[in-house]
Amino acid sequence: MIAGSQSSPKPGTVRKHGTVDITVHQRQRDETLEEVIPPSGGPWGGTAVDQAFLDFMKDLFGADVIDGLKEEDLEDYFHLLHEFEIRKDQSNQKETITGDIVMQMSVTLMDLIKKLRGGISSHIKTTKYKDFVSVEVQRLHIKAEIFRDLFKSTIDKLIQHLRKIFEKPELYDLKNVIMGWRFF
């Protein structure tokens, strides 16, 4: 059986889930588990999806805008990341993501976009995202298709790793797979 897991952090520590760890165990006749394939994995957790979001935002508004937000108002930068964390969590609770993903934009972020790009809506219309992203009042609307794409690379890498594991001769009679993860 396979279970994706995170090792338990020490009490009092804060841990971002940046990796996926996969191990294979086999149930023995005495109902105990024996490790068949040792833990393996890679950087396919929530922080990889966070980075995809930041890359998307830099692609949409420019690295100078997002880096400027981080330098000018770190609290608003973290608020943007927190907004994304909330949307990730909400998407983890649904089987499919439909409709727009709506995120609150800080005044500082909006002012930076206006200062460096001349206007938010007019700038978006000049990007490859013109049909997928819009701004209404202080809210960034992202089409579900784009939001799902933020997870794609991470999921593809995880699937590729799982395929390699499933090809191992030790797993010729594999009958059950147990997986659990969330992109936090």
Overview of the molecule:
The structure is a single chain. The protein has 184 residues and is α+β, with helices and mostly antiparallel strands. It has six helices and six strands; from the N terminus they run E-E-E-H-H-H-E-H-H-E-E-H. It has helices at residues 46-61, 63-72, 74-92, 107-117, 120-124, 144-166, and strands at residues 2-5, 20-27, 33-42, 101-104, 133-136, 139-142. Strands 1-2-3 form a three-stranded antiparallel β-sheet, with helices on one face. A hairpin with a 2-residue loop joins strand 5 (133-136) and strand 6. Helix 1 packs antiparallel against helix 6 (144-166). It is elongated and about 70 Å long. The relative contact order is 0.18. The model is unreliable at 1-16 (pLDDT under 50).
Quick recap:
The chain is built from 6 helices and 6 strands; from the N terminus they run E-E-E-H-H-H-E-H-H-E-E-H. It is α+β, with helices and mostly antiparallel strands and 184 residues long.
Topology:
Blueprint: E1 2-5, E2 20-27, E3 33-42, H1 46-61, H2 63-72, H3 74-92, E4 101-104, H4 107-117, H5 120-124, E5 133-136, E6 139-142, H6 144-166
Antiparallel strand pairs: 1-2, 2-3, 4-6, 5-6
Describe the structure using short key phrases.
single chain; 184 residues; alpha+beta; three-stranded antiparallel beta sheet; elongated
Shape: elongated
SSE order? EEEHHHEHHEEH
SS-based class: alpha+beta
Helix percentage: 40-55%
| Number of E-state strands | 6
Largest sheet strand order: 1-2-3
Rg (CA only): 20 Å
In this structure, how is the largest beta sheet organized? 3 strands, antiparallel
Mean pLDDT: 84
**Unreliable parts:** 1-16
